Amino acid sequence: MRTVLRAQAAEARLVLGLCWALLLLGVGSAWSQLGSAEGEPFAGRLATALLASAGAVLFARLQLSVSRGGAALGRRWLAPLVMATSLAPLLWDSVNPMLVVAWAAALLQRDLRRSLVASGLLLAVLVWVFPRSRLAAMGTFADLFFELLLYTVVLVTATRLAVLLDELRLTREVLARRRVDAERERVGRDLHDIMGRTLVAASLRNQAALRALGDRDPAGSRELERLHDTIGRGQAQLRELTSGPVVTRLDEELETCRMLCERVQIELAVDVRREPPGEQAALVAQVVRQSVTDLLGHSRATRCRIVLDRDDSVTVVAVTNDGSVLREEPPASRPAGQLARAVVAAGGSIGTEHASGGLATRIVRLPIRSEVPA
């Protein structure tokens, strides 16, 4: 629970903290009744206080289970157990202050049908129990219903607000990164338009000079031919630079991923067992960059592990997360689709493996050409 809580945005943690302060007031009220001189037996008051404490902890766990990275905390029995701890004191004619969380627990279940069924059963139990318990002495059923409704609205709204605030913060980080990518692409297009025209003009003038010089100066012709080859290589490099993704060096990309994951409280582990060959470093950096971008944009992961390794024939990049959203063959129009094309163009393969616990691993294998030393 602590790990999931740390993974939430600061604003989300603040909202959850306020909810839990409200729950603590209810728990404190239950424990304060231990010294009451009313006719209820001490054992009944103690059991009510213990159940109130357990209900508060279970409800906090239920809230975290619907938050980012908290799916592992969720169990089918969790919401029914919260409701049971809230209603159980009515068996010995005691009122649990944590009764107010029962309806909220029913509505926070991920399955809408289960939420509706649990809400209906809760209201049916309260209608049957109300005239037969001490609740009738505390007011009308309408008073009880509206009090439950008020607390339910507050708790459910606060929980959903915490989830929304966390998702907004994560989305903001991803959008900021995509804006950087868009700016890089714009600069690349401008560079291609300006430098491309300049290199074409230089190539045409070089060819005109070659034709004008003819055979009168063989040495000058050879130099112009070398210049023509240099301009041609420059044009090819410019096309390669502006048509593909712009990525930094591999070490810089890994450091950027560390910083970005740290901002959104994703625990990142990087294991560089053997660095890829120099000619593959840019493509490996692209794999890392796109995998982490997919992770941030489409999952609720709390942990990520990047492993880089190679042998004499292949370089392997494995990116594992516990959000289980990595796809093997995304649409070609998306950046991840461009990544798949780049990997295939390099003679490699890209795939996804899923494991228990919501783990997903994107594995990219890139063959090493024989002339590259191991």
TrEMBL record:
**Protein name, per record:** Signal transduction histidine kinase
The keyword Kinase is assigned to this record: yes
Source organism superkingdom: Bacteria
Keywords attached to this Swiss-Prot or TrEMBL record, sorted alphabetically, are: Kinase, Membrane, Transferase, Transmembrane, Transmembrane helix, Two-component regulatory system
Q: Which residues form the Signal transduction histidine kinase subgroup 3 dimerisation and phosphoacceptor domain?
A: 183-242
Q: Which GO terms describe its molecular function?
A: phosphorelay sensor kinase activity; protein dimerization activity
Asked if the keyword Cell membrane belongs to this entry, the reply reads no
The residues that cross the membrane are 42-62, 74-92, 112-130, 142-165
What are the record's GO terms for cellular component?
A: membrane
